[in-house]
Prior knowledge:
Strand order of the largest sheet: 4-3-5-6
Order of helices and strands: HHHHHHEEHHHHHHHHHHHHHHEHEEHEHH
Strand content: under 5%
Largest sheet: 4 strands, parallel
Number of strands: 6
Amino acid sequence: MKKLIRAIEKLRPYFDAVARNKYLKAIKDGFIAAMPIVLFSSIFMLLAYAPNIFGFYWSKTVEAFLLKPYNYSMGILGFVVAGTTCYNLTKSLNRDMPVDNPINEISTMMCSMVGFLVVAVDSIEGGFASGYMGSKGLLTAFLVAFFTANVYKFFIKRDITIKMPDAVPPNISQTFKDIIPFAACVIILTIFDFFFRKFIGVCFAQFVIEVFQPLFTAADGYIGLAIIYGAMAMFWFVGIQGPSIVEPAVSAIYYVNIANNLSLYQAGEHATNILTPGVQQFVATLGGTGATLVITFMFAFMAKSKELRAIGRASSVPVLFGVNEPILFGAPLILNPVFFVPFIFTPILNVWLFKIFVDFLGMNSFMYILPWTTPGPLGLFLGCGMGIKVLILAVLLLVIDGVVYYPFFKVYDHQKCEEEKEKGQDEAVEEEQMLEIDSNTLKSKRILVLCAGGGTSGLLANALKKAAEEKGIPLISAAGAYGAHMDIMKDYDLVVLAPQVASFYQDLKADTDRLGIKCVACEGKQYISLTRDPEAALNFVFKILDEEE
């Protein structure tokens, strides 16, 4: 087992390169920016159709009233994501551009949205059809975003722009500077759309969906699901944030499938598409990647080891809400040979069981999108439209996860107990030497902590805030998600990168160097220990900032 893990670790540089890929990252960050639309619209879908479970049906007038916010938000998701993806890709491309000649992110965002409409929307009398403006147009949105950002780069890098006299205000000059690349993108896409419709007979967005439909079908099968969620767990096991690699490849399938499920349910049919956001968040990663909800509570209430019991109890609340980095790095579960098998295969078994319930027992798949921090069993219950079958599945998932993890838990608990006996029942942890903190160094400093989704970063930010308040130091700390930090990063003096996104350190450093601020990446055990020890956390950032001084 150790040889296998070492072999996987040797491939880590390649996995890191994939995780840092600017196009995959742009897709991920583009979706993060659009999540308020997704979550907001789902509220109205629940209000409109959840009462049907109990035999209550709204009148057509009320139903139309409830669905209007959904249609005008989720119904233009592809249009919006074309812009947010291009915006984030442009920021990545700007790392390679001269500081005094960057690409205008706002301009590329608007151009991408216009370009998306050109190739994805059919004209109808009095306007245009919205069929591919929502989730069905996501694949086209990504392609248009990639095209637009690179066309802008070609023109701006070669200075093929309209140049205004120096006396013209910069904001006016920028407007004219963007005219040529904007026009080039839209004209090229318009010509492409004309000939594509002429020779293929359908719009580009419809063609893309038809081409990728076999892939959607294959991904929904038992083997496809095993590959997707097994890969997610495997990447996390070697310390790489798995969803950052896998999610961009399947995100379009997620939202097409959940829209199709809802349409099937509205038509009184069986919602059968498996690959949806809810399956990842509330089935495969029940309690976080590796399906760690049950093992965390095993540590908290069944472990004989004092260390594991303490880690389990400290991690229980975050894991209940899908934030499992405290248990991943604290136990640790990742890079721990004992947990390799259950960590990889429990998510696969969970998804397979879910598919059996959908395929053979008539349970509806996910139709609604809920915040990823919704407790797993509750998210499963609400996302699938409630019902007795869903409750039975939720219980079975917890039982199966417990059965799979239990023997490995017992082995590790025994190992830890033996270690504690050898250490005289005292945890032998080498504490970092504390420095005498100079409050002037930290005075009015701003610390930004970044993780994958803004969960564990909040733990460290709160620890810093607590220690600063106790010592009367006016230090400001905040938490955020990597990818949503670009516009606020300039307001901080130090950016701390959590271990699950440490592979992005070089990209972050390039951004912070441009801004003249400091950044640092944490290791797993170190990061978790800092979240539990406010004074050590304050000491950690003090050393970094003191070096800067």
